[in-house]
C-alpha cells in the first residue's frame, strides 16, 4: 500500500508505482506452452522503456498524456502464467522494492 501523496499527481503516481514495481499476478490460460511462456516473458512492467522511474515523473514528461506512455508499463512487476492444458507454470519479472523505497520513504 503506497503512502499518501500531497498532490493528486503524486497520489496517482504512487498507486501506479505500487503495481509497476510491487504488483504480482497469477494468470491461468489454456493452449500451447509456447504461448503461455511468451505471455509470461512479455508481461512484466520491466519490459517497458519507461521502467525504473516514478509514474508521476513519467506522466509529467509526456505532458499528462496517458497515450504517450509505453503501454508495457501498465503491467505488474511479477507474473506467473499457469497453463491449465499442460499443468506447467511460467514465471517472469520480480518485485522491485529497491525502486519503491526511494520513491516513497524518507529515513527517520
Structure description:
This protein is α+β, with helices and mostly antiparallel strands and 108 residues long. Helix content is 37%, strand content 16%. It has a single domain, classed as 2-Layer Sandwich (Methenyltetrahydromethanopterin Cyclohydrolase, Chain A, domain 2), CATH 3.30.1030.10. The chain has helices spanning 8-22, 33-42, 55-61, 97-104; strands at 24-29, 78-83, 89-93. Strands 1-2-3 form a 3-stranded mixed sheet. A hairpin with a 5-residue loop joins strand 2 (78-83) and strand 3 (89-93). It starts with 7 loop residues before the first helix and ends with a helix.
Briefly characterize the structure:
With 108 residues, this protein is α+β, with helices and mostly antiparallel strands.
Report the major sheet.
3 strands, mixed
CATH architecture level-2 label: 2-Layer Sandwich
Please identify the top-level CATH class.
Answer: Alpha Beta
Q: What is the overall silhouette?
A: elongated
CATH fold node name: Methenyltetrahydromethanopterin Cyclohydrolase, Chain A, domain 2
Count the domains: 1
Q: Say what oligomer this is.
A: single chain
Radius of gyration: 16 Å
Unreliable parts: none
The CATH superfamily is identified as Methenyltetrahydromethanopterin Cyclohydrolase, Chain A, domain 2
Mean pLDDT: 93
Order of helical and strand elements: HEHHEEH
Structure classification: alpha+beta
Secondary structure: number of strands: 3
**Which percent bin holds the helix content?**
25-40%
Amino acid at each position: 500500500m503506497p503512502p499518501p501523496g500531497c498532490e493528486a499527481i503524486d497520489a496517482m503516481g504512487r498507486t501506479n508505482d505500487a503495481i509497476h514495481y510491487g504488483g504480482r499476478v497469477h494468470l491461468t490460460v489454456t493452449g500451447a506452452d509456447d504461448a503461455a511462456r511468451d505471455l509470461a516473458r512479455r508481461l512484466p512492467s520491466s519490459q517497458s522503456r519507461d521502467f525504473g522511474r516514478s509514474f508521476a515523473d513519467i506522466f509529467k514528461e509526456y505532458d499528462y498524456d496517458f497515450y504517450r506512455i509505453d503501454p508495457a508499463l501498465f503491467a505488474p512487476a511479477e507474473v506467473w502464467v499457469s497453463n491449465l492444458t499442460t499443468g506447467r507454470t511460467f514465471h517472469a519479472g520480480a518485485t522491485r522494492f529497491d525502486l519503491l523505497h526511494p520513491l516513497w520513504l524518507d529515513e527517520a
